[in-house]
Design brief:
By secondary structure, the chain is α+β, with helices and mostly antiparallel strands. The protein contains 2 helices and 3 strands, in the order E-E-E-H-H. It has a 3-stranded antiparallel β-sheet with strand order 1-2-3, covered by helices on one side. A hairpin with a 4-residue loop joins strand 2 and strand 3. The longest helix is centred in the middle third of the chain and has 22 residues, at about 30-55. The two termini are about 15 Å apart.
Length: about 70
């Protein structure tokens, strides 16, 4: 499944900061590309952990994904 997750990129003094507000994730990278890669990795790990903890539906709902009753 491919999921588009919104995040904000900001240029700091010495790095780029990436923040996914909906999931309360913040990471950084020395370059724009690295920050984007790091936030994607952080979101993937967050959702994997949420699945293992049984709260994946709650986390996906924060992103606007709503599970149908029959699924």
């Amino acid at each position: 499944m491919i999921l588009e997750v919104p995040f904000i990129l900001k240029k700091g003094k010495s790095c780029f900061v990436a923040e996914c507000v909906d999931l309360n994730i913040v990471t950084q990278g020395a370059t724009l590309r690295e920050a984007r890669k790091n936030v994607a990795e952080a979101v993937n790990l967050h959702l994997k952990s949420a699945r293992e903890l049984g709260i994946l539906d709650d986390e996906l709902e924060k992103l606007g994904v709503i599970k149908k009753k029959n699924e």
